[in-house]
Structures are given as structure tokens and as C-alpha cells.
Amino acid sequence: MPLPERRTVLLIHAGLIGSGCDAATTWLVHDYLSDAGVVPLLTQLRLHCASTFSHCLKTMTFVVRIAKAMEIDGSEHAILCVGALLHDIGKLSLPNSLLELPRRLRKTELEKVRTHPEVGYDSVSDKRILGWNAVLDIIRHHHEYLDGSGYPFGLTAPHISWRTRCVSVCDVFSALTEDRPYRPAMSTETALGILNDMVLAGKLDGDIVDALRALDLGGEVAHE
Ligand SMILES: [Fe+2]
Ligand SMILES: [Fe+2]
Q1: pTM over 0.90
Q2: Angle CA(3)–CA(5)–CA(6) in degrees, nearest 5?
Q3: Domains plus CATH for the chain?
Q4: What one-character DSSP code corresponds to residue 183?
Q5: Which residues, other chains included, contact 55 with Cβ-Cβ below 8 Å and sequence gap of 6+?
Q6: How do residues 180-196 score in pLDDT, each as one tens digit?
Q7: Among 7, 135, 143, 202, which residue's beta carbon has the most beta carbons within 10 A?
Q8: Residue 90 Cα, ligand 1 centroid: separation in angstroms?
Q9: Ligand 2 centre distance from Cα of residue 57 (Å)
Q10: How far is the C-alpha of 216 from the C-alpha of 122, rounded, in Å?
């Protein structure tokens, strides 16, 4: 395995172990990534946009902790981790200058960014691995909201799986608590307040946000 890919694997392992993932699940994640042949893609993402790769790692660490708290283990846990790692893989198709833009996106830029769930889905939809459909579901639907106001399809609650809801909650929380070029990271308290508002608005799954809130969230990091 080339050195850059080995570094990607090491960072993923560190994120898994550091967030309390057991050794068996860590190796299951490793096997899924190897069998699917997606380590080169994740390495490309890391080299293309380090902050997006860090965001994917960070999202995965919250998923690990929620799955542990909910006693989800084995392949189900591994699929959640792989889905979280790959959820923004479609951003590889976007120029770094757009991903790192130091201001809010304009309408046309936003439309371009909003293609990433489908582009990501297309980029890894050819894998023939047990459980891969669940990973694809996460990638394609992680920006859908339970009330139908998300994208790209405006799906409603009955059509959004628990796995995807879980990654969505962790994705939003990660994004809010990260420094972005156009704003500093929000505090845990502020981010949880926003998540709570999104639950009240019918967008996010309240049980998963409760599970996240119950974690010790102080100082959570998974940066490269
Ligand atoms: Fe995304
Ligand atoms: Fe994301």
C-alpha cells in the first residue's frame, strides 16, 4: 500500500480507537474499506481537502460513540462507520477553492455543492459487498431531513433509515463545531441548541440527538 494510503488508514484507525471503537469492529471497518477498494478515494479526499477529510473522521467518531451507547456492534456498527467516513466523498468532485471559500455560498455555488450526495453515491455504487447498499443509502441521503425539507430528493421520515439519521445528526454536529473559513467553530452548547431547534422543527431524529447529548462531548477532536 502506498505511503499516503497507509497514512489514511492510520488516521482512520486512530479515530476509531480514540473514540472507543472495539478492536473487532475496527478491523471490520478496515476490511470493508479494503474490500470496497475505497482507501485510494479517501486518500484523494484527504489530499484534496484536509478539512473535509477531518470532518468525515470527526463525524465517524461521534457515530462510533452513539453506536456504542446504543449497544450497536459488529457489522451494523462497521457499516455506520464506513458510511460516516464516506458521506462527503462526493466533495472530491468540487474544487478546493469552493470547499474552502471564506464566505457564505452564493446560489449557484450552493447548487453545485448540493450535487455531492449523488456524485458520491455514483462514485462508489459499483461495489458488490454485503451491506454496501446501507453505506450507499447514507452517502446519498445524509442531507435529507425528516420533514422533507432536505436534499437531493426531499425524502420524508418513513423513507430515511435510522443509520442515515444517525450520520446526519453527527454530520450536522461536526460541521457546527468545526472552524469554517467563513466562521469560527461553535461551542458544544451552542451546537446542541441548534440541533435541538432542528428536532423541534421536525428535521432531525430526537432520540439520536438525545443520545449525542448524553455523551461527554468536551474536547472532542479527530483532526489530522
Ligand atoms: Fe454532505
Ligand atoms: Fe458532512
Answers
A1: yes
A2: 60
A3: 3-213 (1.10.3210.10)
A4: B
A5: 88, 174, 175, 178
A6: 999 999 999 999 999 99
A7: 135
A8: 8
A9: 10
A10: 36
